[in-house]
Write a structure and sequence with these properties.
The complex is a heterodimer of chains A (about 130) and B (about 400). Chain A has about 130 residues and is of the alpha/beta class. Chain A has six helices and five strands. Chain A has one domain: Rossmann fold. In chain A, strands 2-1-3-4-5 form a five-stranded parallel β-sheet, sandwiched between helices. In chain A, helix 2 packs parallel to helix 3. Chain B has a five-stranded mixed β-sheet with strand order 2-4-5-7-6, with helices on one face. The chains are: A alpha/beta (about 130), B alpha+beta (about 400).
Chain lengths: ~130, ~400
């Protein structure tokens, strides 16, 4: 990759976010962290990102809410939901709304890398939506 | 007792009478003897004096006394003169009358007493009879009552047995309830803890991953330690997953699913090594069941995982779907693995039972719980060395309206 791809990571678990950031940076991505839905929306308004990783379960505004709002701001940016224990309805809702994919925690990082790569614009037309639950 | 008293009285009176009679008879005898002697003396006196009228009169008296002595008390001497002999005669007459009266009054009295005694005896006999009848009646009565009592006692004993059994069952049921309550509380508790633990475990897990990524060039020992931590974290996560699954078991939200498609979807979603050959034998007809997709997925995951392990990652897994009856669907997972020992067949569905060194044996107990929450049953058939079949029965939607109604009701 010539330019570093920007990933926005939205998760209320700070330590986990920092770990994930470290891991993704080793892989060569530039990672930004938002602690909740509001700051995530704020960020994408101001900064262009290539992909968003979103935790579903967050206090105040959950990942699905945030995604719905985000879609109206950056409709072309693929979003991958990360879910620990999440209700089936939420997952279904987000899929219906057009998330790129769903990965369950504890994360299989290989799967994560594959998903991110597949979400990259150059490949999207080949792989379409990939849903992993 | 009255009868006794009468008898006794009669007895003593009789004795008294007897004594009196004896006395009288003795007196009589004495009198007779004295009279007799007197008459002899008189007779001799008369012969010595040898006066014709005196001796005639003496003879009369003597005859009278003799006759009296012989027993004829009704003697009376005609008194014509007024001398000493007349006196004797008059005295004799008086004595005769008195004796006669006494004798007869005694006879009367004895007669009366005898009659009284007889009456008393009669009454006694009558009372005795009545008593006997009463006693017989009472005895029969009592016997019947005793029989009834025996019957009642037997009935009571049965009741007591029954009560004991019921109380035993109640106790069992109560213990079961307490156990379930404890399990429920424990489940909630452990569910909360498990959930809380996910986050720190996620952090550890991801840190390990990062360390493994960046410490590729480090020495063997370091890498080993990292690996060990990583494995332990995975194990911890696995335990938590299982615990959480246990707590999520109750009241699934059931929906209609095409059974064949549901199974296929779940198979696609779970990891099956390429060395396992999967054969699907699904009935052509559409079979609809009520299920909760996530839980059904867990069941399929569990059965596939067990089969894979039993076959040591190599072999054939055959999945069948068919209707055994219009209202019953059969889903079976059969493997060609090592099988299950007969002695373990009962136990494998119990929580925390595992024959593997690793693993916590929760999978099948969860699977069983899920199947039963879906209104179904699960059992296993196995031949050690040849393989095992896990067979699940599910009620078919549409055929068993009452059951599906019940299931739908319990799931809201």
């Amino acid at each position: 990759m010539e330019k570093q791809l920007k990933i926005l990571l939205t998760d209320d678990n700070t330590e986990f976010s920092l770990n994930l950031k470290d891991i993704l940076e080793v892989k060569g991505y530039e990672v930004f962290i938002a602690n909740d839905g509001f700051s995530a929306l704020d960020f994408v308004r101001r900064t262009k990102v290539d992909i968003v990783l979103m935790d579903i379960r967050m206090p105040e505004m959950d990942g699905v809410e945030t995604y719905k709002k985000m879609k109206s701001i950056i409709p072309d940016v693929p979003v991958i939901m990360l879910t620990g224990f999440a209700l089936e309805e939420l997952i279904r809702e987000s899929i219906e709304y057009g998330v790129f994919g769903c990965l369950s925690k504890p994360l299989n990082f290989d799967e994560l890398f594959t998903a991110i790569e597949n979400a990259l614009p150059e490949r999207q037309e080949y792989f379409g939506n990939m849903i992993n639950s | 007792m009255q009868l006794d008293q009468i008898a006794k009285n009669a007895n003593s009176e009789g004795t008294l009478l007897l004594n009196k009679a004896t006395e009288v008879s003795q007196r009589n005898r004495v009198i007779f003897i004295s009279v007799f002697i007197f008459s002899i003396l008189l007779g001799s006196g008369i012969s010595i004096v040898s006066s014709r009228s005196v001796s005639r009169r003496l003879n009369i008296i003597s005859d009278a006394t003799t006759r009296m002595a012989q027993g004829d008390l009704k003697q009376s001497i005609e008194v014509t003169e007024n001398d000493e002999l007349s006196l004797v005669s008059r005295n004799f007459n008086r004595m005769a009358i008195e004796l006669y009266d006494l004798y007869h009054s005694l006879e009367e009295k004895v007669g009366e007493r005898t009659k009284e005694l007889n009456d008393a005896n009669e009454r006694l006999a009558k009372m005795k009879n009545e008593l006997e009848i009463k006693v017989t009646e009472r005895t029969t009565d009592l016997e019947m009552k005793v029989q009834e009592l025996n019957k009642s006692q037997k009935a009571l004993l049965y009741m007591v047995e029954d009560l004991n059994r019921t109380s035993g069952k109640l106790k069992d049921a109560q213990e079961e309830l307490v156990r379930k309550e404890r399990l429920a509380i424990l489940g909630e508790f452990s569910g909360n803890i498990s959930h809380e633990l996910r986050n720190p475990l996620g952090v550890i897990d991801s840190s390990i991953y990062f360390l493994k990524m960046s410490l590729q060039n480090k020495d063997e020992k370091t890498l080993q330690h990292l690996e060990r931590i990583s494995n332990s974290v995975k194990t911890s996560i696995s335990i938590i997953e299982n615990l959480l699954n246990l707590t999520r078991m109750n009241k699934p939200v059931l929906r209609n699913f095409d059974c064949g498609r549901l199974i296929s979807d779940c198979l696609n979603s779970c990891f099956i090594p390429s060395t396992i050959h999967v054969v699907k034998e699904f009935s052509k007809e559409q079979i609809t069941i009520l299920a909760e997709s996530i839980q059904f997925q867990m069941v399929v995951n569990n059965l596939v995982k067990n089969a894979t392990a039993a076959m040591n990652e190599e072999g054939t897994l055959t999945i069948k779907l068919y209707k055994s009856r219009p209202e019953e669907a059969v889903i079976s997972f059969s493997d060609s693995g090592c099988g299950i020992e007969p002695k373990n067949l009962e136990k494998i569905f119990q929580p925390l039972f595992s024959t593997k060194a690793k693993g916590f044996g929760l999978g099948l107990s969860i699977t069983k719980m899920i199947v039963e929450n879906h209104g179904g049953k699960i059992y296993v058939e196995s031949t050690p060395g040849q393989g095992s079949s896990f067979i699940m029965l599910f009620p078919v939607v549409g055929e068993n309206k009452q059951l599906t109604n019940d299931l739908q009701m319990t799931s809201t």
